[in-house]
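Q: Could you fold this chain for me?
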Amino acid sequence: MTEEEQIRAEIEAEMRAKAKRQADDRLRKEAEELIKAADAGDLESQIKVAKNYKEGTRYFPQDLTKAFHYTQMAAEQGHIDSQNRLAHFYADGLGVEKDQTTAFEWFKRSAELGSINSMLMLGDYYMNGCGTEVNIYLATEWLTKAKQEGGVDTKLANAKNILKQQIQQYQEALLVLDQATKHSYGSCLLGRELYIDYRLHSYIVD
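A: Sure. Below is the predicted structure, expressed as structure tokens.
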């Protein structure tokens, strides 16, 4: 390499380094502005900041606590997907102490607004008594709704089987109580309650 070629190579290398520094400064400034906008309440910025902190990028080193914080901000503004993500943060203990009751509440809020994943999770929570009491009827209702909206139904069949078993138990109880009502007014009232409960459950089962 001649002296002239070496000088030219050094100049080009310096130009590339300068361009890289400028690009880094620009991207760093954009990241700082994005955080400022998120802190100021901009929903889209909160969603982007939360995602970057969760996944970890050059200008957003992975930080699950911060990812949880910005996801919560977006969820509280009514963003459905953020509500679903927040529920998963609580369910898995990511960036926050694991809390299945709070996870259930956020899955419910998101499901009511139309999140299919939250419908499936809500059905699972009701079926297993996670964060709430076991309620196979509501589990089946939410899993059915998720299926109608296009979600997978792998858990729906199981929920329906359990619900059918419960209804069979109600039917057997009705036969016994039918005999008991001839001798006890209290049993008659109980029989009516069971029958009403049975009618409410039966419509959801194929």
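A (continued): Confidence is low (pLDDT under 50) at residues 185-189, 198-206.
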